[in-house]
Specification:
This protein is mainly β and about 200 residues long. The chain contains no helices and 16 strands.
Length: about 200
């Protein structure tokens, strides 16, 4: 039995909980007698990150020089290197035949804003906390106030253009009404390049 690609299938880097493009593993009968294939399963500590989406080989008999394919997808459940094995049982000896599967789970940038709303009973200044909770830095392009009451609100902050994972910064929002009555506005934090 020959497995192609030999030894290892590398799925590269994929965002956590997002399925990546499937990869094909080909099983080739290289002997002079029929090859009887039994079960084909995933094993290993992180086998739940991989999935057999098409199994054209289990419980098949391959004539010499013929082949079949197994299609596998990678959907990491958490960040970091994820590994498993494709285990093939057959009558070719040295069982089971193992094909290593590896991929890296990536946690993308994520920005959490707390609290989600502010209430100003009178002229006052209140903080909004920005937290980079993902696995990559958050690029902050703009912080601004918009809406019908935007002229009555001001913001002050020292947030960096790039907020590293686990770091926080404070946006201080000040309400100074220019006339009586209620005011509504929206604090906008735009992520990405400054031209976005």
């Amino acid at each position: 039995l020959e497995i192609d690609p030999p030894g290892l299938v590398d799925f590269g880097t994929q965002n956590v909980n997002v399925p990546g493009p499937p990869r094909t593993v080909r099983l080739i009968s290289t002997g002079t007698k029929d090859l009887s294939i039994g079960e084909i399963v995933l094993d290993g500590a992180q086998r739940g990150d991989f999935n057999i989406v098409d199994n054209g080989c289990s419980r098949r008999t391959l004539a010499p020089k013929s082949d079949c394919v197994v299609v596998i997808s990678f959907q990491p459940l958490s960040g970091g290197v994820r590994q498993a094995n494709l285990a093939v049982s057959d009558n070719a000896g040295d069982q089971p035949h193992l094909e290593s599967l590896t991929g890296t789970g990536s946690i993308p940038a994520q920005l959490d804003v707390s609290p989600s709303s502010l209430w100003f009973p009178a002229s006052n200044s209140l903080p909004v906390t920005l937290t980079s909770s993902g696995g990559a830095p958050v690029t902050i392009a703009r912080i601004s106030v918009s809406g019908p009451g935007a002229d009555d609100f001001r913001t002050m902050h020292k947030c960096p253009k790039s907020l590293p994972p686990g770091e926080t910064c404070i946006v201080q929002v000040t309400f100074r009404p220019q006339s009586p009555g209620s005011r509504n506005a929206t604090l906008s934090i735009v992520e990405g390049s400054p031209d976005a």
